[in-house]
Predict the structure.
Amino acid sequence: PAAGLAAVTRQMGKVQSTIQAKAKLPPKSKSSRNAIVARAPDGVPARLPGMSGVFNRSSEPVEIAARAAAGVAEIDVFGVIGDWCLRAEDFKLVLDTVNEPLIRVKINSPGGDVFDGVAIHNLLKQHASEIEVHVIGLAASAASVIAMAGDRVVMGDGSFLMIHNAWTTAMGDTRLMAQIADVLGKIDIQLAGIYSKRTGIDGDDVSEMMNAETWLSADDAIEYGFADETEAESAADGAKAHDLSVYRNVPRALVPAATKKKKAKKAKPAATEAPSPDVSPLLAELFSAHIKGVM
């Protein structure tokens, strides 16, 4: 029986380890993958030992780099925000090197440290370039704060954005706990102000959404003003920059307005001139036959 009990115990331990590895949770802890973690006042531990493993398998920060081409600089915000992974000071070092007129920030992050998130948000807002944010997977918690810095926010297919209240872990007496609660309340008010400014939603209503830990799909984010468009719409806008007149079945949504106006203003031949033969049907037929032959 003892041997059997030991085997069961080992098996249970493997199952628990597997669950923790998949969920990236510390032992006996509620889910905190998507949480904003606020730093506690000086002298009060902000998180328990080992909490760095909650968000990232490695304690090493992620290398941040900007890729620049054709007037556009791209910066990835992948992973956890803050000391665990992606720090505001490292982000600033990269951002200071960018001179392109458009900065495209791609986000896929579960969140992290609230103050690093706010700092990155403000760094982007203060930059002279236009900021275009693409949520390609998840912009949760502190990452959603960064997303609000975009002059234009684009949601990828299947992407989500999540907002909620700040939280932390700490220890101390009642006075310290009250102080920390007060700090967290002030943080929530500031975050609600950032969301409200971007969306136009009343601050009290935003606070209710944060209280409920609101998850917004791409369509929800657009409806409530957290984002402007989906990736498909963005791709359509990009397609409008190309001359697609050679194709026969271009959707009207991809036809630039300038092209439509140009066709509408096409001058008619003067009455004194002999009309030119209409060879467009023949050309269209030849073009169609050519396409069928090479495709």
Observations:
- The chain has eleven helices and eight strands.
- The first strand starts at residue 66 and ends at 69.
- The beta strands are 66-69, 72-78, 102-109, 130-140, 152-155, 160-163, 214-217, 229-230.
